Amino acid sequence: MYLVLARKYRPKNFEEVWGQGPIIDVLKKAIKEERTAHAYLFSGPRGTGKTSVARVFAKALNCEKNSIGKPCDKCEICRNIAAGSSMDVLEIDAASNRGIDEIRSLRENVNLTPSSARFKIYIIDEVHMLTEPAWNALLKTLEEPPDYVKFFLATTAPEKIPSTILSRCQRFNFKPFEQGELIKRLKEICKKEGFTIEDEALKAVYDFSGASMRDALSVLDQLFVNAEDNNVTYHGVKEFLGLVEEKSVGEILMLVREKDVKQLLVLFHSLLAEGKDPAVIMEGIIKRFKGIILERMSVGETTPSEEDKTLYGLFEGVETEVLLSAVSLVIEYKNRLRVENIPVVLSEILLIKLAQILGGDTALPQKTAERKEGKVQPKSKQVAKDGDIFVSERTVKEKPAEREDVVEGKASLKNEEEVLAQWKNILSEVKKAKATLEAAVREGSPVSFKNNTLVISFGSKYEFHKSLVEGKQSNIKIIEGAITKITGVKDVNVSLVSEGEQESPMDNGDVKKIVDFFGGEIINVEE
C-alpha cells in the first residue's frame, strides 16, 4: 500500500530531524544526564516537526535497548510508538478533545502505571485549543504528576496558553525551515523516489508551502502523480498550483505606479481567466513589496534579478512608510477574502486603492531632487495682472525665448555616431517625462541610427524590459520625442529588437513612410 511522503519520511530518530539542531542537542543531553523534565512545550509554525520530535523523544525515553538518545526502532515499544498503538504513549488532539470531561478522564488515567514502558507519556497536539475549565483541571496534574508521567505539549499559538501553564513547562521554539535547508531535503527525497525536479520548481514549492516540511511533501505527492517521465518542471508546478508569474505581478505594480486603473483591471481579469486565485495574486504582490522594502533597507534575502531592479526603480520616489501602509492594506484584504464571498470585487477595490496610494506623476521625484540641488528655481512672486490672470516674473522672462525649433546647435547632430553619443542625455529626457519608462529603456543598448530610425537592442535577460517599453505606443512616442529634443533630428522612429534579431523592413524609415502613405501592409520580403 502506498504511504504518503509526509508519513514515509517522518523522522524515526533524532538524526533524521532537520533544521532543529539546537533543540535536539538539548533533548539528547537531558536523556544522557537523566535530567528530563515532566512537562515540555514545543511551539512553532505548522510542519516544523513538533509532534515528530515528541514521538522520537518518547521512543528515546522508553526504548528497551536504552541507547542514549537513539531509539532502536526494532523493539516492541519503539514499533508500537511509531505505529501509534502504544498504550503508554498517548496522542491527544486538543482541537477535538478540548473540554473539561476529556481532561478529567486524563487525570484519572494518570494514576495508572505504565503497562510495559518506562514512562507514560501524553502528547497533546494543538494544546492552545483547550477551554479555560480544561486548563484549570490540568493545572494541578501538570504541576505535580507521578514520577512515571511526562507531558509533551505542542502548539502553533503559544500566546494563547495561560501563563500558569507556561511556567510549569520547559519551552522549545521550533523555527521555520530556511529555504536552503528545505530545498536540500526535498531534492534528496525526489532522488530517492526516482524523480528529477527543477530548482525553480523547488523554490515554488517552498514558497507555496510556507516553509512547512509537511505541506511541501504533500505538494510533492501531487506533483509526482502529474509529472511526465518522472520529471517535475517549474511550468508544471506553476500550472498545478495556480501560481502567478513574477512578470505578471511586476506588470500589476507598474500599472499601479502609473495609476492606469483601466489597464490594471484588464490585466487582473486576464489572470482570473487563466484560473488564478485572487488570494494568490495578492500573495505575489506582498512578496514583491517585501522585496522592495528589504532591498531599500539593504537587507535583501537574495541577489535581485534585473526585473527586480527595474521594479525597485519604479518605486524610488515612494516613501517606505507609504509602502508599508500598502502592504498592510493588501494583507487586510487578503484576510477578508476568507470570510467574504465577493473576492473579485474586493480585489478590484484593493487594486484601485493601491493605484490611488502609490500612483501619480512619476516625474515628480526627479523634479523634487533637482529642486533640492538648486537646478529648478521655485515659482517667483506674482508681478503682473492681466484681468483675472496673474503672470509670474519667470513666465515674462521666458516668453521671448519660446520657439518652435529645438535649441540652436542641436540640429546638426544627424550622423549615427553623434546620435548614439547622446544616449545618456536621451535617457535623462525620457526620465523627465516618465521615470518608469526610463528604468526599462536603460536596459537596452542603441545599436544603429539609419534613415532616422534608432534601433535599440535588448539582451535575452531583458525581454521583460523590452515588453514594458513596447507595451504602449505612447512609450515609443516619448522616446522619439526625447531623441528629437536632444539631437534636433525630426521625424524620428524607434525600433526595439531582441539581441541577434534581424531588423524588420518596417524599421526602415523610408519603407514605413511608403506603407503609411498608401495604407498598405508588407506581405513578403525577398532578397
Structure description:
- This protein has 527 residues and is an alpha/beta fold.
- It has 4 domains: 5-173, 3-Layer(aba) Sandwich (Rossmann fold), CATH 3.40.50; 187-208 and 218-241, no CATH class; 246-360, Zinc Finger, Delta Prime, domain 3, CATH 1.20.272; 416-518, 2-Layer Sandwich (GMP Synthetase, Chain A, domain 3).
- Helix content is 51%, strand content 11%.
- It contains 25 helices and 12 strands.
- It has helices at residues 5-8, 21-32, 50-62, 76-83, 100-110, 132-143, 163-166, 179-192, 199-209, 213-226, 234-241, 246-258, 261-273, 278-296, 306-314, 320-336, 343-358, 364-372, 393-398, 416-421, 423-433, 435-441, 463-470, 473-487, 509-518; strands at 39-43, 89-93, 120-125, 149-155, 170-173, 196-197, 231-232, 382-386, 389-392, 445-450, 453-458, 493-498.
- The strands form 4 sheets. A 5-stranded parallel sheet has the order 2-3-4-1-5, with helices on one face. Strands 10-11-12 form a 3-stranded mixed sheet. Strands 6-7 form a two-stranded parallel ribbon.
- Helix 8 (179-192) crosses helix 9 (199-209), helix 12 crosses helix 14 and helix 15 runs antiparallel to helix 22 (435-441).
- The radius of gyration is 33 Å and the shape is elongated.
- Mean pLDDT is 81; it is low at 362-413.
Major sheet attributes: 5 strands, parallel
Beta-strand percentage range? 5-15%
The strands making up the biggest β-sheet line up spatially as 2-3-4-1-5
Structural class: alpha/beta
Mean pLDDT: 81
Shape by Cα distribution: elongated
Helix content: 40-55%
Number of domains: 4
Name the CATH architecture of the largest domain.
3-Layer(aba) Sandwich
